[in-house]
Design brief:
The chain is mainly β and 235 residues long. Helix content is 0%, strand content 42%. It has no helices and 14 strands. It has strands spanning 40-43, 51-54, 61-68, 76-80, 87-94, 105-110, 119-127, 133-141, 144-145, 157-165, 175-184, 189-199, 208-213, 226-232. The strands form 3 sheets. It has an 8-stranded antiparallel β-sheet, with no helix packed on it. The chain has a 4-stranded antiparallel β-sheet with strand order 4-13-6-9, with no helix packed on it. A two-stranded antiparallel sheet has the order 1-2. Strand 7 and strand 8 (133-141) form a beta hairpin. 24% of the residues are buried. The mean pLDDT is 83.
């Protein structure tokens, strides 16, 4: 049986040389609470021993959903927005419209009753084959135009990257910034799009995104079509 060493001859002081290897463990630190895997040791002067195990701040993007599109023809793509995140990021590659007529892609941001909210928005399309640009703006819109017409050719593609802020707040307006890219194979034209919006009027929590095409056309099926949703937290 190992006997505890009498340290009275050390005058109350213990040097590093007096400690054996692995001689200090969690119980010897007099931490105020029990350890939890993944937690970090923090200074808490008001607690017993002045040390407390606490959950580490994350401050990173968490992959919340990764969905492959193109399983069936759909009239709209709905994405539910989770709560508890200060920011949400969405990466999406859209299917083509059905048929040989180009359509634009529009977005609605819905509340918990599936009612589209009003936004002040602006979208600018910068084309690769000319020095001019197209823009869409409507101060009181519920249908936010993201692209010009695309999809008349099988090689057409539309990509978009969004960052949303304050989607689950009822006191701060939902807002977003986004950058898109689409390619129109029928005219060999690449188009970069910039879009942004802020909620207008009464503030409500944003519960769902709905992407649809101008008119009543449905999205076509295909391969390589997906969306990824990420959430960001500071603590």
């Amino acid at each position: 049986m190992t006997k505890a060493r009498d340290l009275s001859d050390l005058g109350g002081g213990v040097t590093q040389a007096d400690l054996p290897a692995e001689g200090v463990n969690e119980s010897k630190l007099q931490v105020s609470n029990a350890p939890v895997n993944g937690y970090t040791l923090t200074a808490q002067s008001g607690n017993t021993g002045g040390l407390t195990w606490a959950e580490a701040a994350s401050g990173h993007w968490t992959n919340l959903a990764e969905v492959t599109l193109g399983v069936a023809q759909v009239s709209a793509i709905d994405i539910t927005l989770p709560t508890g995140y200060d920011q949400l990021k969405l990466e999406i590659v859209f299917p083509r419209p059905i048929g040989t007529t180009g359509k634009d892609v529009e977005m609605q941001i819905l509340n918990s009753s599936d009612s589209a909210q009003s936004f002040s928005y602006y979208t600018t399309h910068l084309k690769s084959d000319q020095n001019t640009y197209d823009s869409d703006a409507d101060r009181f819109a519920t249908d936010l135009v993201l692209s010009g017409t695309y999809g008349a050719n099988s090689g057409d593609r539309l990509h978009y990257s969004f960052v949303f802020n304050d989607t689950d707040s009822t006191t701060i307006e939902t807002k977003y910034l986004a950058q898109g890219y689409y390619y129109r194979n029928d005219v060999t034209q690449a188009v970069n799009s910039l879009s942004g919006a802020t909620q207008y009027g009464s503030t409500a929590a944003s519960s769902k995104l709905r992407f649809k095409l101008g008119g009543s056309t449905t999205f076509n099926t295909g391969t390589g079509l997906y969306y990824r949703l990420y959430g960001h937290t500071y603590s």
